[in-house]
Write a structure and sequence with these properties.
alpha+beta, 13-stranded mixed β-sheet, 25% strand
């Protein structure tokens, strides 16, 4: 009886049912798509941070940035016996390994302090370096001497090459990034973000050895293979493995990985590190660990993933801001309008059904039964709207995943050599500001709880409309129906 009457009333009011259902469907579809895009952008942001942090890393401890003028960039010093002279040209070549320009270092004992901090489950240290190789031909008088030797230092990496001199000259400075790591710790830090594609990984037995892992892209570009050697600070270092990022959208942290003590010795930096990667016991304890480390290490910079994410620039952060703010508020507004429309149409329908409800009450329908009737009709309209909205939302997610929009994630970097190093002739060359940039494919994931919640919102909207309409219908009296008939 109830179902039959309900179906007949909905069929007799198709226009109202369609308007309410369509309004709710659009609102629900928008909620689903916005939430999927928000989740997709957050995933993309996490991918962009993987190359900087490493899997499982919650915090990083770094030294304060060096003051301008403290560094001066990579410097090459040649003695009187360096290079060879033929005629008016001196041929020079030198490789040096130095800490990153404008980047401070920490004493290696900082790692012990971090490890001893409460709620820290794992930590590893790394030393970030740049290996630069100066090679080329210069006029024998290019540095002020005429016998093929130098009377001082070659230009720094940021200086222009010497001008003039007999026969002219040219030089190049090729650079690649080097990361000294603890091979015994792979659960946190840079090694957690890579996997071995050829050869073997570093292990604790490699401490102090001249062995290295090389990024697959860098190895391919420079024709480096396992078993071969690379020149690091003038030493032949054996390549024992090739590594690739475990993420398709994130690069590895460096071109070359060395055991930490080997990197410290070759660079002459001493017992220092650039970064300590920290894994907290749980997400809830990250803030407490960060506060404790800041108290223990006042001269260091403690950064969390959320803080680093806020520095990500480019269209990725723009998309995050747009979707999170505008999209969320737009969803709320549209959903509120859809529910308000449902309430108004339901109240309007009840007013037009004064004779019907008055007559039903005159023949014995209770107020509760009248309310259930109106609420049932509205709930069915909400279910229809939710189902249609669910289909539209899923279709929107599928379209986004098929189109695969690309967003750019870029993090401002310090002064460092560009990819492939630098080269210059008389016009010079030098250090320049770079950004670590990556194009990330945006995916809109299916989140089951969002889909269920969306349908629930549609039903809730129908119930709200039904509650108002039922309340209005229950106030009608049989006398009003009789006056309407008369």
């Amino acid at each position: 009886m109830y179902g039959t009457y309900l179906r007949r009333e909905l069929a007799g009011r198709k226009r109202q049912t369609m308007i309410v259902a369509i309004g709710l469907a659009i609102a629900i579809a928008l909620v689903i798509i916005v939430n999927a895009l928000t989740a997709g952008v957050r995933d993309a942001q996490a991918q962009a941070l993987e190359s900087v942090y490493g899997v499982g890393t919650d915090l990083t401890v770094t030294g304060a940035a060096a003051e301008p003028g403290e560094g001066g960039g990579q410097r090459f010093d040649f003695g009187s016996e360096d290079g060879s002279t033929e005629g008016d040209t001196t041929t020079l070549s030198q490789s040096t390994l130095m800490t990153d320009f404008m980047r401070g270092t920490l004493d290696a004992s900082v790692l012990d302090t971090v490890t001893a901090t409460e709620d820290v489950t794992a930590a590893s240290a790394a030393l970030s370096l740049t290996n630069s190789t100066f090679s080329g031909e210069l006029p024998s008088g290019g540095f002020g001497a005429q016998d093929g030797t130098t009377e001082g230092a070659a230009p720094t990496e940021g200086d222009a090459p010497p001008q003039g001199g007999a026969g002219g000259g040219s030089f190049g400075v090729d650079s690649f990034t080097v990361l000294g790591i603890d091979p015994a710790v792979t659960s946190v830090g840079p090694l957690a973000s890579v996997e071995i594609s050829d050869g073997r990984a570093l292990d604790s037995d490699d401490a102090g050895a001249l062995v290295a892992l090389v990024d697959a892209t860098y190895a391919s570009t420079n024709e480096i293979a396992v078993g071969g050697t690379i020149d690091v600070a003038g030493s032949d270092v054996e390549v024992v493995g090739i590594v690739v990022s475990i993420s398709d959208s994130a690069d590895t942290a460096a071109n070359v990985y060395l055991p930490l003590d080997t990197a410290q010795e070759l660079s002459g930096a001493g017992d220092v590190v650039s970064t300590v990667y920290v894994q907290a016991e749980s997400a809830a304890s990250i803030d407490a660990v960060q506060t404790a480390l800041a108290d223990e290490l006042p001269d260091a910079t403690i950064t969390s993933q959320s803080e680093l994410a806020s520095t990500v620039s480019g269209s990725l952060s723009s998309a995050t801001s747009l979707i999170t703010n505008l999209g969320t508020w737009l969803s709320i507004i549209v959903l509120a309008v859809a529910v308000l429309l449902s309430v108004l149409l339901t109240l309007s329908g009840v007013s037009r059904r004064t004779r019907e409800f008055g007559t039903l009450k005159a023949i014995g329908w209770s107020n509760g039964r009248v309310v259930r009737q109106v609420a049932g009709e509205s709930m069915v309209q909400g279910l229809i709207g939710g189902a249609v909205g669910l289909v539209l939302g899923i279709a929107g997610i599928v379209i986004i995943n098929l189109v695969k929009p690309t967003v750019a994630a870029a993090e401002a970097g310090g002064s460092e050599a560009g990819p492939g190093g630098m080269s210059g002739g008389p016009a010079g060359g030098g250090m320049f500001q770079t950004q670590q940039a990556a194009d990330i494919v945006l995916q809109a994931p299916f989140t089951p709880w969002v889909l269920i919640a969306a349908v629930g919102l549609a039903v809730l909207g129908g119930l709200v409309a039904g509650a108002f309409g039922g309340w209005r219908a229950a106030r009608l009296s049989p006398a009003e129906a009789l006056r309407s008939v008369a």
